Amino acid sequence: MADAKVIPFDDDRSRGSRGAGNRRRGGAAESAPAGEGPVGEVQPLPVRGAAAEEPAPEPDQSPAVDGGGEDGGEDGGLERRVAAGLSFLRRRLTGDYEVDDFGYDAELTDQVLMSLLRPVYEKYFRVEVKGVENIPAEGGALIVANHSGTLPLDGLMMQVAVHDHHPADRHLRLLAADLVFVLPVVNELARKLGHTLACAEDAERLLAQGELVGVMPEGFKGIGKPFGERYKLQRFGRGGFVSTALRQGAPIVPCSIVGAEEIYPMIGNSKTLARLLGFPYFPLTPTFPWLGPLGAVPLPTKWTIQFGEPIPTDGYAPEAAEDPVLMFNLTDQVREQIQHTLYKLLVQRRSVFF
Q1: Within 13 Å, how many C-alpha atoms sit on residue 23's CB side?
Q2: Do 349 and 261 meet the contact criterion of CB atoms below 8 Å apart?
């Protein structure tokens, strides 16, 4: 399988509608009858007229209604969640939902797919996110990251990081290699998540629509490199991603991911099996294929994802996208920034697993 065609390849925010927030329980304090207070206590003046004939209202001792109590609040929240779930199922069954031209299903991604990825992100890899404020709050931008880990879990974790932590609730659209879109099931899920083919045409369309686009220019060279070369960036192709950013005037945001290299330590590559299966490589790890399906479980490493300062491209002339020297210089700048941040994060890391 060849590389991709043009572009090789805390506060917790609430996720979705969760019902009503916390409600305060009210109650009126009983006051002592007039004249029975301690000696010297100032008593309220008597009320004259019609108001004096009306007895003071008794404190409301009836059970809280409309979810005012603890149990009521929980029941009300549960009812709303059940109603929302049934409404979601009705829309899915009747086809009353929207997908864009690339097959991206925003509702399914938010309500289901992100919910499936989130436990892996939060509990298994315990991802720490830094610099998410460097991602623009609006408009198109190209996020360029290192690629590693034998299987492309790093791209999915980066997508969750943007989805859950960006203050503007932005979504990341990943550019994926051809292989992703020929695999059954994987193809459909990738499209629903908003992924598209790693080619200049699709990338430019998304940027022109003001989307965040993620690309990993190392492609299979990065994800399938031996364990001994971990955290050493491979060649970034011919700089196609820089040309795409220049054409749209979109900023480039470097992204460094630490932790993915160790989830499947690749100690060998069976080229014969890779050719038979049509894969770019067939990994051999300390657990796979020796332990069978159990060997496909990734190691629970501790991850850090850091987004660097954006590199602007809107100051260049339109013909700059065809300047090979400029593309080479910008590509090298992005690569060096990612590599430098990787080394810095590795020095700061206490352990692979903690």
Answers
A1: 19
A2: no
Number of other residues whose CB lies within 10 A of the CB of residue 62? 6
CA distance 17 to 79: 12
Q: Where are the alpha helices (DSSP H) in 148-219?
A: 153-165, 186-192, 200-208
pLDDT tens digits, one per residue of 309-324? 999 999 998 889 999 9
CB 211 within 8 A of CB 159: no
Residue 110 tokens read as 């938010």
Phi and psi (nearest 5°) for 331?
-60, -45
Report pLDDT for 296: 93
What pLDDT is attached to residue 330? 95
* pLDDT for the residue numbered 85: 85
Q: From CA 141, how far away is CA 281, in angstroms rounded?
A: 31
Q: In this structure, what token pair is assigned to residue 31?
A: 């006051």
Residue 139: pLDDT over 50: yes
Residue 74: band (very low, low, confident or very high) from pLDDT cuts 50, 70, 90? low
Q: How far apart are CA 105 and CA 64, in angstroms?
A: 41
Question: Can you give the C-alpha Rg of the chain in angstroms?
Answer: 28
DSSP state string for 188-241: HHHHHTT-EESSHHHHHHHHHTT-EEEE-TTTHHHHT--GGGTT-----TTSHH
Quote the CA–CA distance of 198 and 28 in Å, as a whole number.
Answer: 65
